[in-house]
Amino acid sequence: MKYRFLLILSFGLTGVCYSQQNITVGEAVAAALQKNYDVKLQQNIAATANSDKKFAAIGVFLPNINGVGAIVKNTTDSRSITASDVETVRTGIKSTNTQGSVQLVWTLFDGTKMFATRKRLVETAELNELNVRSLMNNTVASVVNNYYNIVRQKQQLKAFQEQIGVGEERVKLAEKKLQVGTGGKPEFLQAKVDLNAFRTSALAQEALILQLKDQLNGLVGLTLPPTYETADTIIIDMDMTLQEVIANIEETNPTLIAARKAIEVAEAGVWESRAGRSPVVNFNSNYNFNKTENAVAASPVSLLYSRNKGLNYGLSVSLPILNGLNITNNINKARINLERQKLIYDQQVMVATVNARVAYAGYDNARKTLIIEEENILLAKENVFIMLESFKRGIATTIELRTAQQSLVDAYTRLIAARYNAKVSETELLRLRGALLVSQ
User: Which of 431, 285, 260, 234 is nearest to 352 (CA)?
Assistant: First the structure.
C-alpha cells in the first residue's frame, strides 16, 4: 500500500530534508510516517496478512500434490529344503527395491468453505491495511501536538525573556534611586530577587524545551538532528464547524472504518464455520511405481526382476456425523465474535461522536478565549510600559510595577495556552474526521 499524504493543518508537507536545522511540522510528520516504530510494526503485520491475501487469490482452490520415493537395498542369506530333501543354500543375495508414487488430492466441494476462507483472508488483509492507516492518523496527531507544544513553550520562554529585560531595567532604576538617595535598599533587593526569579524560570523553560524536542525525536525514530529549531508561531483554522466535523464521520473516521471491516471479517468466519457441516468431495489420484531386482534367485520360483506401475483415480466423499459437537461449538463462537464486533463498532461510533463534540467544545472555547486574551495581552503590555515609565519618574511604586509585570506574565501564559489548546482541539477534530491524511 502506498500513500500520498495530504496534511490539512495549515501547513504543507514536504520531504524530510533539513535546512539550517530548522524543522517544519510537515517534515516531522513525514519522518514519523517513515520511521515511527509503531507504524513500522503495524506495517509488518499488514504485510503478513497481505501475503495470506495473495495466497487466497488462488491457493485455496489448488490441489495438494505430494511425491514419495524410496530405494531399499537388501543383502540376504537363504537356506531352503524341499519335500524331496533337496537343500538349497544361498549367501550374500543382493536385491534392490525401487518405489515411487505421486499423490493428488483435489477438493471439489466443501460446502463453499474454501470461498469463505478466501473471503476471510482478503478481509483480514484489508483490515490490517486500515489499522495501519488508523495508526498513521493517530501518529500524525501525536506528532503535531508534540511539535506545537514545543512552539508553545518557546513562546513562553520569550515571555520570560521579555520580563527579564523589564526586570533588568527595573534593577538599574532601583540602583540609581538608591545611589541618589530617593530609594531604599529593600526596593533594590526586591528588584534583584524578582529578576533572578524570571531568570530561573527561563532556565527551567529551556530545559523543558530540550526535553520536548527529544520526545518529538523519539516519535520520529530519532531521524531529526540532535539540535534543531521549530516554527515560532501556531497557525489555527478558526472557521471549523461542528457540522462539518460530525457529518459522515462513520465514513471518514479510520477507527470506525476498521471496526466495520472487522465485522466483515467476523461474518466470513461464521460462513467458514458453518461450511464445516457440509460433505467434502475430493478427487484422488495416484501414480505408483515399484521395481524389484534380485542378483540371484533364492529359489526356482523366485523372480530376478519385477516392475509394476500404474495410475488410479476416483472420488471420495466424507460427511461429518459426530465429532464431539466441535463444529457446533465453532459456529457458536464465530457468531459470538460477530456480535462482539458489532458491539465494538456501535461503541466506537458513540465514542467518536462524543469525542468530536467534546473536542469541538474545547476548540470553540479556546477560540473565544483566544480573542479575549489577544486583546488582554495588548492591555497588559501597555500597562507594564506605563508603570515602567511612572517608576522612572518616581510616581509608581515597586509593588505596582511588579504587579503589572506579573499580570503580563499571566496574560502571556493564558494567551499561549489558548493558542495551544485551540490547535490541539483542531488537530483532534481533524483526527476524528480522518482528515489528517488522505490516501490516493
Answer: 431
**Three-state secondary structure call for residue 315:** strand
Grid coordinates 495549515 are at which residue?
10
Domains and CATH numbers, the chain: 25-35+111-279+322-433 (1.20.1600.10), 65-109+281-318 (no CATH)
- Bin 383: left if φ > 0, else alpha if -120 < ψ < 50, else beta: alpha
Fill in the amino acid letter for 155.
Q
Give exposure, 294-318, as e/b (b: 16+ Cβ within 10 Å).
beeebeeeeeeeeeeeeeeeeeeee
What span, in angstroms and rounded, lies between the C-alpha atoms of 368 and 9?
20
**From its phi and psi, is residue 413 left (phi > 0), alpha (psi between -120 and 50) or beta?**
alpha
DSSP assignment of 287-313, as one string?
EEEEEEEESS-SSTT--SEEEEEEEEE
The x, y and z cell numbers of residue 85, run together, are: 530333501
C-beta of residue 275 within 8 angstroms of C-beta of residue 113: yes
Residue 62: is it exposed, middle or buried by C-beta count within 10 angstroms (0-12/13-18/19+)?
exposed
Q: What are the pLDDT tens digits along the chain (440 aa)?
A: 444 433 433 334 344 444 448 999 999 998 988 888 788 888 888 888 778 777 777 878 888 999 999 998 888 777 777 667 766 777 777 888 899 999 999 999 988 989 999 999 999 999 999 999 999 999 999 999 999 999 999 999 999 999 899 889 888 988 888 888 777 888 889 889 989 999 999 999 999 999 999 999 999 988 888 899 999 999 999 888 888 888 889 999 999 999 999 999 999 999 999 998 899 999 999 999 998 887 766 566 667 778 888 999 999 999 888 887 888 999 999 999 999 999 999 999 999 999 999 999 999 999 999 999 999 999 998 998 998 888 888 888 888 888 898 899 899 999 999 999 999 999 999 999 988 875 32
Which contiguous run of DSSP H or E holds residue 355?
helix 326-392
Q: How many residues does the chain have?
A: 440
Instruction: Please state the pTM of the whole predicted model.
Output: 0.78
What are the CA-CA distances from residue 209 to residues 59, 408, 424 (Å)? 55, 22, 18
Q: Residues with Cβ < 8 Å from 248, sequence gap 6 or more?
A: none
Residue partners of 372: CB distance under 8 A and separation at least 6: none
139 in Cβ contact with 219 (< 8 Å): yes
